[in-house]
Amino acid sequence: MPAVGLRVQLTELTPTTHLITFIGDLGAASTHVIRQALADHIGPGRQLLVDLSRADRVERTASALPGQCVVITGGRQLPGSVSTASTIDEARAILAAQGHPLPVVEDSERTTSELDIRTLRNRALIADALDIIQQRYDQPTAEDAFALLGQASQRHNVPVRILAAAVLRVPAPKGTTWFPGRLKAPQPPLSFPAGPAAARTVRNVLRSLLTVVMRATDANSGDAQSVAPLDDGLVLESQQGMPDELVRDFSWIALADSTPCTRAYRDRAHVDADITTTETISEEAREALLSHGIRRMYSTPLLALSGRCLGVISTHHADTAGLHDGVVQVVDRLATETGRWLDWHRKTVVFDALERLHQLATAE
What DSSP character marks residue 258? Predict the structure, then answer.
């Protein structure tokens, strides 16, 4: 939602001077994500201003800030050795003293764009995985490491971000095979159309699930989310009927946010939320949903047999009337099937892709 979690804006002050503005909760982002956003816009011949005056928990940035930037703090203290200023005018004076004067440009004339938090997270995650692959397999460059990751990803139709996360999370192989003696479980059945079993992906299965659930609940719009690779958020995999603004805001939601879908994740239970009255939702989220005519949400977790939540399916409704018990039971059954399938995919297809990566990297 607009003020939930974290937003990052990029403003081009001059062709070589950029302003990055963090808005919201910096605690909702890993240091790697913050560092990625900054690294993209700093380098030889460039100047970078970082505005933290509209951010919460700014101490989160201390280890990620490059020394050559100027940080606008809004008067707050910031640990570290970077140059700080209370306002953009003070930051402008610092740059001028360094020989980089900035022309005065009205806000309406500046070019400002929103950086995609989900993309930043994925890139940071992949970069960390490439570092491991380079070191583990003695690869000359990050490009060589990415070639290995890409081949394994394509061979098993596993997104690079998912495979990269597995490289980070799964203990390193100790022999010629990554998972010696591994027994593969059969693919769990799905009672809804999801394409040929051999070609199913997480996104396609969640897209198919959403179509069936929206039809069963007569929903106005809806979304299907997977749990982010490092278990720190919910990632939008599919949506129907959602306006562009909500699609942007739902693309990645921190698990600590107060929304029906994050509550379903935390409680491991179905959440029926009347947006007009519920107290378990932030005011920012309530305003965003109501502004788009969403007055009720039904969020159902997608659980593995172990109880681990691997995703959430949510439907959005214009009225506040509840779902019939029979409809809720149908949604719960479909969610149960999908949760078991997601768990199988994680333990089978993703592990197959890791094994392929290991074989490619160790081939003579």
Answer: -
Residue 120 CA to residue 14 CA, distance in Å, equals 23
Q: With contact defined as beta carbons under 8 Å apart, do 332 and 296 qualify?
A: no
The closest of 62, 64, 53 to 19, measured between CA atoms, is: 53
Query: Torsions phi, psi of 347, nearest 5?
Result: -90, -15
Range of the domain at 105: 6-115
190 within some domain: no
Domain CATH for 319: 3.30.450.40
Tell me the per-residue pLDDT of 54-106, one tens digit each, with 9 for 90 and over: 888 777 666 677 777 888 988 887 777 678 889 888 988 888 888 877 776 66
- Is 276 within the bounds of a domain? yes
- Render 33-83 in DSSP notation, one character per residue: HHHHHHHTT--TT-EEEEE-TTEE-GGGGTTTS-TTSEEE-TT----SSSE
Identity (one letter) of the amino acid at 171? P
CA dist list (Å): 308 to 9, 266, 268, 312? 34, 10, 8, 12
The alpha carbon dihedral of 41, 248, 29, 89 has a sign of positive
What is the reported pLDDT for 1? 38
pTM for the model stands at 0.83
How far apart are alpha carbons 338 and 191 in whole angstroms?
10
Number of domains in the chain: 3
> Taking Cα atoms as reference points, which of 202, 299, 307 lies closest to residue 257?
299
Helix, strand, or coil (residue 7): strand
Q: Does residue 191 lie in a domain region?
A: no
CA distances from 160 to 80, 152, 358 (A): 35, 9, 15
